[in-house]
Known about the structure:
This protein is α+β, with helices and mostly antiparallel strands. The protein folds into two domains: about 1-80 and about 115-345, no CATH class; about 350-499, Immunoglobulin-like. The protein has helices spanning about 35, 45-55, 70-75, 120-125, 150-160, 185-195, 200-210, 215-220, 245-250, 265-280, 285-290, 315-325, 400-405; strands at about 1-10, 10-20, 60-70, 85, 100, 105, 115, 170, 180-185, 335-345, 350-355, 360, 365-370, 375-380, 385-395, 410-415, 420-425, 430, 435-440, 445, 450, 455-460, 465-470, 470-475, 480-485, 490-499.
Amino acid sequence: MIKDxxxxxxxxxxxxxxxxxxxxxxxxxxITFSDSISMFPDNYKPYxxxxxxxxxNWVFKPLKIKLDFNEVIKEESIKNRSLVPLSSSSYIKSNIxxxxxxxxxxxxxxxxxxxxxxxxxxxYFIDPANFLNEKHIFQFxxxxxxxxxxxxxxxxxxxxxxxxxxxxxEYINLVGDIEKxxxxxxDEIMTGxxxxxxxxxxxxxxxxxxxxxxxxxxxxxxxxxxEGIYNFYNINAFDSHNPIANGLKWAGGGTTYQxxxxxxxxxxxxxxxxxxxxxxxxxxxxxxxxxxxxxPHSAYKKYTHQYMTNIAGAASESMNNFKAYSNINMxxxxxxxxxxxxxxxxxxNVKFNLENHSAKxxxxxxxxxxxxxxxxxxxxxxKDTIVKIxxxxxxxxxxxxxxxxxxxxxxxxxxxxxxxxxxxxYAGDVVINDVITIKTGETFKLNYTKEGAGDHLIQxxxxxxxxxxxxxxxxxxxxxxxxRIYSGKSMDAITVKVV
Length: 499
């Protein structure tokens, strides 16, 4: 059986053919929902069942990825394919050779202010099971245009809080004059969507993801050397120390996709044509597949032609679409989600225990009700308060810059007002009390217990003092290091003092 995805494109029609071996069609009138999800891994099913109970009009379709799960994680973690901002927490920045210079304690920038992330974080974002909830499943949403649910009102909901919300377009032309129009940004996004067969919610989310709520040099029209040129999707703003200039140079040259883009309207509509031509119509028809090019039917070589290097990009964009549908009360309308299934897939659900250990707080902090800075505050604890660590876990909130600043949290127990309580604190706000003291030049094996399946990584926070090779810990020079164990979701640590 062949499934034809017909996309409305200016001048021609793309036909995306997906063979039955990769697509399971679901006929809700003849089979039960339980039958329809039978092809998914067992650990997907509870999440899909929960979503189905709340949103019965949603359709979940398995997309078989003919690649080994561990191979994908490895490939996406090399060649500068997965980056985080330099300002991110050290917990998620790679300090292996090539990504970090030990002698000067400095991370190697792979793009302007962007550095390589760790293997466990790549694992976390690649594993679909971590995102099968109502807010983040939208990275698997079919990104073709659906006039029954996608509206200008919904686009405005996504643009809320940005410079484009409910605004008519005014821009600087090539001679430096201000041009005023009667068209809003939402109008042009809808035009691009209808013309090129792409979800307008995806286009709006993509613009916000690329240029931010306040815009950037790509949208200002006054970027030095490229005055009067616009690139709302940052197309061809490739990795370098001046990606904006690279993108504007491309936007101002050539004649394809309505270039040169001498107005926001041309950039938004013409850019939508580029995205369809290069991504949506070439087998990268979900945000996930654009971030991780693993579809066996992609027109491009696997692991190449990936729209962004931001490891959290697709997860972050999915939040915008969820908010848009929520704001216009259209979450329960019919939607299709293509959810990847990998070969030799193994759900990373590991918990570590180095010791039944404790820690003290580095400063006065509020205990959080969940693993994330946006969770409600419970109690305020003083600096040097002793707490018992139960386990470490990755953030469970929105995937934005704050999440990358505070990626891992400890579930703790503590005493307050003669009562035993629990909650979460950012891992970077504690000092692990359990200390292993070793002499310079000595080596020892790190012992720990592990619950659950999945691979893991052991990393030293201070490579000048402590080097890690598998489970082997070598003391290099006097100093203190936190030796951390990571999986895709969990972490734990112990303090190593070299004397």
